[in-house]
């Protein structure tokens, strides 16, 4: 969830330093082997580009990758997805594309996605989180339901505060190949004084990522059936708006992905 369009110059610095780390951690085997070191990061980037993400908006960050500013995929999960995709390429079986993440959350979780709010989350954001849960729970014709739980052990998704002097308001993990909800939502405390209505939009948007939605306004994957090609007020657009309810497209998409 972006506050405004930002620049991604820092991504190039991260990629350079991470390539160095990979090269340094390869060990003796590669020193004896004159063959080029396979560039794992390049493979993962190619996979993400194939998924429809913009190469310039892919930032490798330690054990995860951040895409379009606020969509997070864990590195282990990304490695697995890339390996699966490469195996598909080799086997000649066409890869499927969808305008959503490759993984949704299974029926074991999607009728009660449990969010835990870290004690450090200030009241303004707690209000936004409660509002976002209520927003998603107001969508009819879907089995998707969310709740807030009081202990981390029973939660699917932890919501916590971070800080970065950057233009992301909050960012969230997508569901992984285990078909569980995205594991965290991180809120940028830089935006603690954002208007309440924009905070509500932002958290509703991030919760959308945790259940598998990509960005409506970006060319990732293929269209969810029955949703419009462009939807300027969609909660899953990448730039924050004042909260004004879900669009018909948002509702349709939720009903299609998580039918009753
Ligand atoms: Zn987003």
UniProtKB/TrEMBL annotation:
It holds the Pfam family Peptidase_M57. PROSITE patterns: PROKAR_LIPOPROTEIN (PS51257). SUPFAM superfamilies: Metalloproteases ('zincins'), catalytic domain (SSF55486). This is Dual-action HEIGH metallo-peptidase. It comes from Chitinophaga qingshengii.
